[in-house]
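Structure tokens please, single chain.
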Amino acid sequence: WTLVAEDIDSCRHVVSKLIQGNEYIFRVSAVNQYGVGEPVQSEPVKMVDRFGPPGAPEKPEIANVTKNTATVSWKRPADDGGSEITGYYVERKERKGLRWIRATKKPVSDLRFKVTGLTEQTEYEFRVTAENKAGLGPPSDASSPVLTKDVAYVPGPPSNLRVIDTTKTTATLTWGKPHYDG
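Here you go.
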């Protein structure tokens, strides 16, 4: 038997530094000024977590795509595995590629992440994995593919249109550049 602790004043003690997967039997004895009483013994206990890894987050949505960035957002998994989710990892993959690459170095606590360093005119898919004390869960389904490019908008209307001259068969017009060029 290994002495774990002594001089405990309460009827509760947390035994730490146990090895996961091992089985233990615990004995507790009462002590007073006259000596140590008979021990009581626990049933055998196997060291396993009472929780497991989380489920997969929902399929991520992609927004605000530029030539080299995309913002990935997702919803938490329906199942947290019985332990609070500690973070998420975002992965990216070229649509034609086979290998998923982590886009986050550290776990992200938010439910969105701006992925940077993407290659222009490339189709990407993204997926997200949740983590809790038990470890990483399965990844989400892959997002719909998105093409990295700067979004272009049509220009605004020209300003200050005026007819400055007319003849029987012609009209001369002038106008200013649009305030917004797209």
